[in-house]
Design a protein that fits this description.
Elements (H helix, E strand, L loop, with lengths): L22 H4 L12 H14 L13 H5 L19 H8 L5 E4 L7 H17 L3 E4 L2 E4 L6 H4 L4 E4 H5 L9 H4 E6 H4 L2 H7 L2 E3 H7 L35 E4 L1 H4 L5 E3 L4 H7 L2 E2 L11 E2 L7 H13 L3 E2 H11 L10 H10 L2 E6 L16 E6 L3 E3 H5 L6 E4 L17 H13 L5 H17 L6 E5 L2 H5 L8 H24 L8 H4 L10 E5 L4 H9 L2 E2 L1 H4 L2 H7 L6 H13 L3 E4 L4 H12 L7 E3 L1
Parallel strand pairs: 1-2, 1-15, 2-6, 7-15, 8-14, 16-17, 16-19, 17-18, 19-20
Antiparallel strand pairs: 3-5, 4-5, 9-10, 11-13, 12-13
Helix pairs in contact: 14-15, 18-27, 19-26, 26-27
Bound molecules: 2-acetamido-2-deoxy-beta-D-glucopyranose (3 copies).
Length: 610
């Protein structure tokens, strides 16, 4: 395999990653504007996404009947040991924590599926880094479905009732297979050795061991137990009555209405606004610093009114338009961005950096593209500024912050901060090497099926998205027609790119392959379960995972392929390697693929989301 094809072998500052090129991928599809009416609904939606979009029986090996597989005679009698063995000594755990100010953790929503949990972890990595603390992650996640009868997977992974584990009645009325989930060690899902090489991270079970507690007493819901995790001293602590202290960042302190949470407040901004520190604990309201009141100017009032009308924070281009048309500023040339920024600053507004939304929402948490926004300085609160100096051994951010928030759950005050976060998302939580290796093999099989030409792939999320009205098409016929239509456009893009000398060619080997032809088979990852619907999708030329995997692949890769969500990690990596990718703008499964393609320096024109 050429080193070029290896995942993440490129330096992070790879020259082909150019945010401005990503706009075409990210433009929202005007024909499909989806409104979601309440936060509650989104939360329910995410939970649905998490647990009910099982890829189902589609990927069952042909010719093997279920009864054979569930016959206890044929199933291993004991669960195989967790792999890879990744047990740290107490001294190793201590040494990870030592160069930091202590621990940072969250109330993790473990009821969600991996792609949603993943961006909660990415956000937590950012927050822990800002506070110079060791991040504590759950030592396991729950997966939602087994490719076979659940009793088969239960021989390989601890089966739990999700409702009991999470403390929710969400699934009580469902058939039993939908109520059960599998507890999978985090080291099976991500390369934890690699993660630790980037940032100090330990698992909750390691935290418990470090404090002389039973690792089996780890929180099953992901919520940080405020009492039980604080009853024992650190095993290296000489004062045996000194239990770890806790500081909770209350959820309503994080980003209350009217407040814009940012990573940190740079020195110049502090000076501009005369930021003051609160004195004394009586003044403490969740924010350590405050901006002295500022007399509003006519222009700042005008900007505020605009924001009240169309949403907050304002996009930078909107703000510039307002400035140009306000006739409130004298003779300045607004063609220069830094002039616009200076005018805004002078009137109490600041420029912030974030990522553009996909399909007008921020569900896919895609970290490509650049979006500048502006907010009144008085609304800005720095996460580092507020909580870095907290002395407690453990700092916990209560509740969830990912609903309706930008990637990172905060905005960045400097371009460099945003750039660093892109690196975290693209390079911190990566899969085990064998996932990449298998995806590489499957990719070459797709190439064989297309006669050596480039191949294309799509994510067809059906089940839950169709039920919730999140999909634009209902019938499988319409849906596959839409996929064919988008891939048809993709074919033209790939043909064009080959003759485009200026275009980014991060992967010369791939670029030398002939472009796809009409009628070439294409790969589809889907959660569709209905055999009739699957036949219709296959008839259009779709190739599924079960068509590509051989018995040897399954033997070599091992039991994780039996668990739908873990096999989906391979499907994701396969789609990362497609020459053209079409996915859902509202899906975190598709969003992660776009982020990983960007991490490989793939040309943004070779993907489409809507
Ligand atoms: C992080 O905290 C540790 C322990 O307090 C300190 O020694 C170190 O200098 C801090 N690192 C940074 C980058 O502030
Ligand atoms: C031991 O820790 C406790 C709790 O933090 C504290 O009150 C006590 O003063 C400490 N004892 C010594 C000898 O430092
Ligand atoms: C984890 O990543 C490191 C590189 O950071 C690599 O050397 C190692 O082989 C990976 N482990 C697995 C199990 O993939």
């Amino acid at each position: 395999m050429a080193p070029d094809l290896l995942p993440f072998s490129r330096p992070e500052s790879h020259a082909t990653f150019q945010p401005h090129r990503w706009r075409s991928v990210l433009h929202s599809n005007g024909a499909r504007k989806i409104r979601i009416f309440s936060t509650g609904f989104i939360l329910t939606g995410l939970v649905y996404v998490a647990f009910f979009s099982a890829y189902g029986p589609l990927l069952r090996p042909l010719g093997l009947a279920d009864p054979l597989l569930v016959d206890p005679k044929f199933a291993p009698s004991r669960p195989s040991p967790p792999f890879p063995p990744d047990v740290l000594t107490l001294e190793q755990i201590r040494d990870i924590v030592a160069p930091t100010r202590g621990f940072f953790s969250r109330d993790y929503s473990l009821g969600l599926g991996w792609n949603n949990v993943r961006y909660i972890y990415e956000t937590a990595l950012l927050q822990a880094e800002l506070l110079n603390r060791t991040l504590v992650l759950p030592s396991f996640i729950y997966t939602r479905a087994c490719e076979y009868d659940i009793t088969v997977c239960a021989n390989y992974a601890t089966m739990v009732n999700k409702g009991d584990a999470i403390g929710s009645d969400e699934w009580r009325e469902m058939p039993i297979e939908k109520q059960m989930g599998f507890r999978i060690p985090i080291s099976v899902i991500v390369n934890i050795t690699h993660l630790r090489s980037r940032q100090p991270v330990i698992t909750a079970s390691e935290y418990l061991r470090l404090h002389g507690q039973d690792p089996e007493s780890e929180s099953s819901s992901g919520v940080w137990p405020r009492q039980s995790y604080h009853t024992h001293p650190n095993v290296f602590e000489t004062n045996k009555t000194k239990t770890p202290s806790l500081f909770v960042i209350e959820n309503h302190w994080y980003a209350p209405t009217g407040i814009v949470r940012v990573d940190y407040i740079p020195e110049e901004m502090k000076k501009r606004g005369g930021l003051e520190r609160h004195h004394g604990p009586d003044k403490y309201d969740g924010s350590a610093e405050h901006w002295p009141p500022l007399e509003p100017t006519e222009l700042s009032t005008y900007l505020t009114e605009t924001a009240n009308g169309i949403g907050f924070p304002l996009d930078w281009y909107t703000a510039k338009y307002v400035l140009k048309n306000s006739h409130l500023i004298g003779d300045v040339n607004l063609d220069y961005d830094d002039v616009v920024d200076k005018v805004l600053n002078a009137h109490g507004w600041e420029v912030l950096y974030t990522f553009p939304a996909v399909v007008e929402m921020d569900l896919a948490k895609i970290v490509v593209g650049d979006l500048r926004q502006v907010a009144p300085r008085s609304s800005i609160r720095g996460f580092k500024d507020d909580y870095h100096d907290v002395d407690a051994d453990v700092v916990v951010l209560a509740g969830e912050t990912h609903i309706n928030t930008k990637p990172g759950a905060m905005r960045f005050t400097e371009e460099l901060g945003r750039h660093r976060y892109v690196g975290t998302v693209m390079h911190s939580l990566i899969q085990q090497q064998k996932v990449f290796d298998l995806a590489e093999v499957l990719s070459s099989r797709m190439r064989q099926r297309t006669g050596g030409r480039m191949w294309m792939g799509a994510h067809m999320r059906r089940g839950d998205f169709v039920r919730m009205g999140w999909g634009s098409t209902i019938t499988p016929e319409d849906h596959i027609r839409q996929v064919e239509d988008r891939l048809g456009a993709g074919r033209a893009v790939l043909a064009d790119l080959q003759s485009d000398i200026e275009g980014a060619k991060p992967d010369p080997e791939q670029a030398m392959l002939p472009p796809p032809q009409a009628g070439d088979p294409f790969f589809v990852a889907t959660d569709e379960r209905d055999p009739d619907a699957l036949r219709k999708i296959a008839a259009a030329g779709a190739v599924f995972m079960s068509d590509l995997l051989t018995m040897e692949d399954r033997r070599e890769f091992g039991w994780p392929l039996m668990i739908t969500d873990l096999m989906a990690l391979v499907e994701q990596q396969l789609l990362v390697r497609s020459n053209f990718f079409y996915g859902h703008g509202m899906s975190s499964f598709s969003g992660a693929i776009v982020n990983m393609r960007a991490g490989r320096g793939v040309d943004p024109r070779t993907m489409h989301l809507d």
